[in-house]
Design brief:
Length: 91
């Protein structure tokens, strides 16, 4: 039972960050305004990781590479966290 609780916490934490990063990427790709409450929440959740990455991965061709790279990295960290906790790929 404790393993289900740990998996839930890991899934919620990493899922929220990954989906916010993908949402930020899609909102910038579609040129959606960030002045609405959803846009402000996405900015608040992702600015801490995207801004430093923009020095390494600047936007090119209207695509925010920093957000896309951060989403990929956090997805890998999500899988590694599950592997570290359970010792195998838990589904």
């Amino acid at each position: 039972m404790i393993d289900q609780a740990v998996k839930l916490v890991v899934d919620v934490v990493f899922g929220l960050i990954v989906f916010a990063l993908i949402g930020r990427f899609l909102m910038q790709l579609m040129r959606a305004p960030f002045r609405n409450p959803i846009g402000q929440a996405v900015i608040a959740l992702t600015d801490w990781v995207v801004k430093p990455l923009r020095r390494i991965f600047p936007g090119y061709g209207g695509i925010d590479w920093a957000s896309l790279f951060a989403a990929f990295v956090f997805q890998m960290l999500w899988l590694l966290a599950l592997y570290a906790v359970f010792g195998c790929w838990y589904s």
